[in-house]
Amino acid sequence: MSNLPSEPEFEQAYQELALTLENSTLFKKNPEYRIALKVVSIPERVIQFRVVWEDDNGDLQVNRGYRVQFNSALGPYKGGLRLHPSVNLSILKFLGFEQIFKNAITGLNMGGGKGGSDFDPKGKSDNEIRRFCVAFMRELARYIGADTDVPAGDIGVGGREIGYMFGAYRRERNKFTGVLTGKGLHWGGSLIRPEATGYGLVYYVGHMLEYAGVKEGWAGKRVAISGSGNVAQYAALKCIELGATVVSLSDSKGALIGEVTPEDIEAIAELKVNRKALSAYPLKDNLKYIEGARPWTHVGKVDIALPSATQNEVNKEEAETLIANGCKFIAEGSNMGCTLEAIEVFEKSRQEKKGDAIWYAPGKAANCGGVAVSGLEMSQNSQRLAWTREEVDEKLKGIMKNAFYQGLNTAKEYVEASEGEFPSLVAGSNIAGFVKVAMAMKETGDWWTKTEA
């Protein structure tokens, strides 16, 4: 790749997958899968466009828009839209690449993609956000559709932005179809969709606790959570509901440390709707705010860590601190929440300390609940049906259980382990998702071996 510009986030995501495949027995048993890895690592299509919109002063503004349609072997491209000034092609390729295998793990018929813009919603009025979303969708509309590519929300894109974009698509294409997920409940959205990633994360970790023999489950556990958006909010609420104590939340400017209550979460959710930072939250005796910090080195003793903000938010030193402070389970609510060096620390602990180790679960498995319920929303749209909250929640629980056991059982099959080790969920999840996509690609002619040519 020396002739290509550096794409550090994408290269990290590729390396993490490739290393776990290389360190397993997969390529020994199926050497032809090396060809599949080469093919799957290149997007089927990358779309870039300009977005021209007008601010409240009547001045013209321009941003870059993107959609990476990475892989459609299992179904229409599926993945979120991110609005954030950090957005670039490397980040969207990393997210789209992860999305391929995450979607495969759900068991639903969805391919992988990702998109967004370097537009910053913070400090913008509702009218400016509306005008941007309409301009963005005017360009994107020609490349997406219910059976082609179905975007969803991500950082900076919530229900309001999805509404503006859906309306723009409907007017532009003269179609009312399930082209976006995360829609309002009155016009095709699914119950549990806002909660799904956070709830699913907690359901997944529940299976880790059960497998590890933690009979009391979540009850009495101290849980460190980063982030303060949808994923972190609903993960925190579900943890509290199940008897755990949540001891942190955070955003890009700092961390709240202390016992977080449901009332705190409700107030913080209102802050986020108004695009304000955590530093604007009026503190009570139960919380302190540390500017410029992430929670991991400030929370003290914890049992479970749930990074739920953005990529690379747990580094090597923070991983070592979590282990030193007694953390036994870590699962990513964010995509690629841990650096490669942090993952190496967790995996080394798993191998050396066996049943007394920290056990790590990657985002492509642990946070797949959000896209899973997006897939369920697509199914409801196709049938012109709306399922109850209980129906969707039960389906979500089943999907998260299957995601856990896919990774667990695949690790047992392909990753050599000594007596007493927990199976490697990162390796098992990577292999399970990759094999499913690779088989579909082979059977539909996206790659082949010499004897089949």
From TrEMBL:
UniProt GO molecular function: glutamate dehydrogenase (NADP+) activity; nucleotide binding
Stored CDD domains: NAD_bind_2_Glu_DH
Any single GO BP term: glutamate biosynthetic process
Binding site for NAD(+): 197, 230
Pfam families per the UniProt record, alphabetical: ELFV_dehydrog, ELFV_dehydrog_N
Residue positions of the active site: 114 (proton donor)
Catalytic activity field: L-glutamate + NADP(+) + H2O = 2-oxoglutarate + NH4(+) + NADPH + H(+)
Keywords tagged on the record: Acetylation, NAD, NADP, Nucleotide-binding, Oxidoreductase
Record site: Important for catalysis: 154
Binding site for substrate: 78, 99, 102, 153, 374
GO CC term (a single one): cytosol
Keyword Nucleotide-binding appears in the UniProt entry: yes
Quaternary structure note: Homohexamer.
Protein name: Glutamate dehydrogenase
Protein source organism: Podospora australis
Lineage: Eukaryota, Fungi, Dikarya, Ascomycota, Pezizomycotina
